[in-house]
Amino acid sequence: MTRILAAGDHFVAPELFIDAIRARVGESTDLAFTSLTLDWPLEPFGRIGTVDEASGSIPRLIEALDGVEIAVTQMAAFSREVFENTPDLRLISVCRGGPVNVDLAAATAAGVIVAFAPGRNAVAAAEFAIGLMLAAMRRVVTSDSELKSGQWRGDYYTYENAGLELDGATVGLIGYGAIGSIVSRVLRAFGATVLAHDPYANAATVAADGVELVDLPELLSRSSVVSLHARLTAETHHLLNAQNLKLLPHGAVLVNSARGGLLDYAPLPDMLASGRLGALALDVYDIEPPPPEWPLLAAPNVVMTPHLAGATRQTAQRAATIAAADVALYLDGDRPRAVANPEVWSVLEGRSAR
User: Fold this and answer.
1) What residues form DSSP beta bridges with 3?
2) Where does residue 160 rank: exposed (0-12), middle (13-18), buried (19+ CB within 10 A)?
3) Do 119 and 178 meet the contact criterion of CB atoms below 8 Å apart?
4) With b meaning 16 or more CB within 10 Å and e meaning fewer, what string describes 271-301?
5) Residue 20 to residue 158: CA distance in whole angstroms
6) Which residue in the list 43, 84, 165, 288 is annotated as catalytic?
7) Which of 24, 197, 229, 259 is catalytic?
8) Strands 46-48 and 51-54: what pairing?
9) CB 248 within 8 A of CB 225
10) 217 burial level (CB within 10 Å; 0-12, 13-18, 19+)
């Protein structure tokens, strides 16, 4: 019998994992499930032990992993201490775009395969980014709030205060992976010219999409709207900063629904106050949630949402389905589709061959 831990939360519930695995492998497979429900998103994720963007208690996770060979999760804190106390664990399937809540070095040293789910929220995140753009460009959130408080802002129809259209605009996308490519498709349907900056993108693929691949300074200097869709790494931390943000045209709109660390938030209040930055739309922050004294909370022309870009029911269902597919492949002796530490699989595959 194979024991599986479904370490879910209040978005991707344990039952979603279990139902998806049962549907994929069949009821006849000899499996025993243990469930664990983490507090996210009712409580923010954070750093736990040696991992980031995690939820839950390490001792509680270790207890739930007793005798478990396979774990499926979104947010559980697979810190170094976990691997030191779970000798039976062989596979973790993390149903998110990157397994940041897993200590990859510790997992590799322990011989545990770490699978993940790139693209699981690509549609949701892309749609949300477009929504943020429109909200910022057309003052949707600001005017809604003002009207409900009794203000009828006729001055928003003056030429100086009027909004911007996507049709005919040049929009720069920083990052052209699963999300960025969907965003570009929607933008081109609106009639926008799309630029992209992504050193890892395939130039032929980008060109075939009708998108121009350019370096970062050119993208910033030509784009009236810039939207972030890159992964956060040591290389991309503060990719946009006080120095290169000055390249933006006066009144440009900036959207970040990717990761807070991609953007240096310090210069933004002054840029908004001066009109250098026309509007800002944020779903992610350098500190989550932002503290009450955070300057951008009182800055003009800012749209803010609490890290909701991926929050659709379809994303949760898709995440569980991807994790279930990983489990099924592993049970059949095959490699999961996206593995963060392929060297572990190579070792296991070599043992099987012998």
Assistant:
1) 32
2) exposed
3) yes
4) bbeeebbbbbbbbbbeeeebeeebeeeebeb
5) 54
6) 288
7) 259
8) antiparallel
9) no
10) exposed
What contacts 154, CB < 8 A, 6 or more positions away?
none
* pLDDT of 163 higher than 90: yes
In 3-state terms, what secondary structure has residue 242?
Answer: helix
Backbone angles phi, psi at 312, to 5 degrees: -130, 155
Tens digits of residue pLDDT in 301-322: 999 999 999 999 999 999 999 9
The continuous run of DSSP H or E covering 274 comes out as helix 268-274
Prediction pTM value = 0.90
Active-site residue, 237 included: no
H-helix or E-strand containing 179?
Answer: helix 178-190
Q: Residue 174 is inside which H or E element, if any?
A: strand 170-174
Q: Is 110 helix (H, G, I), strand (E, B) or coil?
A: coil
Average pLDDT value over all residues in the chain: 95
Read off the pLDDT of each residue in 260-272 and give the average, rounded to a whole number.
97
Instruction: Please say if 343 is a catalytic residue.
Output: no
Contacts of 278 (CB under 8 A, 6+ apart): 164, 250, 251, 252, 253, 301
Whole-number Å distance between alpha carbons of 274 and 178: 35
**Block residue for tokens 């200097």:** 221
Encoding tokens for residue 306?
Answer: 């609490």
Name residues whose C-beta falls within 8 Å of residue 109's C-beta, 6 or more positions apart in sequence.
Answer: 83
How many residues does this entry show for the chain?
A: 354
CB burial of 4-35 (b: ≥16 within 10 Å; e: otherwise) equals bbbbbbebbbbebbbbbbeebbeeeeebebbe
Inter-helix orientation angle 122-137/178-190, to 10°: 40
Q: Which of 90, 229, 307, 318 is catalytic?
A: 307
Taking a C-beta distance cutoff of 8 angstroms, is the pair 278, 253 a contact?
A: yes
Cis peptide bond upstream of 289, omega within 30: yes
Its sign, for the CA torsion 252, 257, 258, 259, is: positive
pLDDT at 351: 54
Tell me what the mean pLDDT of segment 123-143 comes to: 97
Question: Is residue 286 a contact partner of residue 265, using CB atoms and an 8 Å limit?
Answer: yes
Residue ranges of domains in the chain, CATH in brackets:
2-120+312-353 (3.40.50.720), 122-304 (3.40.50.720)
Whether 307 is catalytic is yes
